[in-house]
Amino acid sequence: MTPSEPGAAAGVAVVTGASRGLGAAIAVRLAAAGRPVAVNYLRGRDGAEAVVERIRSAGGVAEAFGADVVDEDGVADLFAQVSTTLGPVTAVVANATGPQPEVGVDELSWRAHLDQLEFFVKSPTLLVQAALPTMRSAGGGRVVLIGSDMADRATPGMSAYVAAKNAQVGLTRVWAKELGPEGVTVNLVQPGWIPVERHAGISTDSYVADVPLRRMGTPDDVAATVAHLASDAGGFITGQRISVNGGHTI
What we know:
Number of strands: 7
Strand order of the largest sheet: 3-2-1-4-5-6-7
Oligomer: single chain
Helix content: 40-55%
Structural class: alpha/beta
Strand content: 15-25%
Order of helices and strands: EHEHEHEHEHHEHHE
Distance between the termini: 39 Å
């Protein structure tokens, strides 16, 4: 199979941090599009199993895999298990995230920076490295990093998070050029504030007032964009950052 042939994007998709929120919606959407999906989680086993059951009930194929995706051994073990259970991986969606504390610059530590860089630079690097052998064997693949429009909004108190999210922009551009000749596309999806389970009870009124489309986004808004980029139809899109935020940043 050559990189330009239809089907180069077929194969298993690994979605990290997929036991709830955006990751769960992405996993469900990719499975509905016909991909077997590895639903990764760290601590939310019950949530991941629920996502798998939802996919299977709709006729899709999925398995839940517990792994720490900021750890070298954790990623290696994850891909070994996925390959044995579901088959070769040709798509990676790097969605996992950790705590995002608000810290002013006067109290900002290097450890705070590293905490964010581990999720948004180290983890995607490990995931792509693990997936490349099977992507190359398949003649192509898809990498989608989940960023944040906070990279553009420059929210005070969030410098470690914003710095790491902007680092993803650089990774996307370099990897797209580096891996493009092998049929691997690399893109960055930047959601705005998409309310999920952890935002229950928080007012969205002031945020909506600044969104040109005058509504909050949904997890499926993000999942639809990821699914397109991961499909054969998205095979000529690479090196791009796409904001899914109703025009909140333009």
